[in-house]
């Protein structure tokens, strides 16, 4: 819901719309408690931290780069840069993330952004039948398969660690 002083669209509604538009199931679950980290989400969902899909925004030549990484992974930006043949990849600031995704750090979803983002998908996530990803805010997640996530994000599969 929009607050009276908030002019941004509801990020969870944007994620739901993006899932539906992509032909994916709307599996968004809302939680009373915040789940802003992979560990917090895994504890609430009763799954492995590695099955949580972190949506991490980086900056590459002034443009956003979304890396969908396992919650158990620490992204090796030098490895990713070498694989995609680019310069240095930097962690984006919270303001940069909000500007390009419409979502706050800790609640960024793989979809539902104002514009399509270049996206990389951690190949280690293939090890899990069900993945959980942020759904636009700190209190929501959605479930999806690796194949479906790759399809709806048009992500480039890469080893990120």
Description:
- The protein is an alpha/beta fold and 161 residues long.
- It has one domain (11-158): YbaK/aminoacyl-tRNA synthetase-associated domain (YbaK protein, Alpha-Beta Complex).
- It is 27% helix and 24% strand.
- The protein contains five helices and eight strands.
- Strands 1, 2, 3, 4, 5, 6, 7 and 8 form an eight-stranded mixed sheet that branches.
- Strand 2 and strand 3 (63-70) form a beta hairpin.
- It starts with 10 loop residues before the first helix and ends with a strand.
- Residues 1-5 have low confidence and may be disordered.
Question: Which descriptors would you attach to this protein?
Answer:
single chain, 161 residues, alpha/beta, YbaK protein, eight-stranded mixed sheet, 8 strands, globular, disordered N terminus
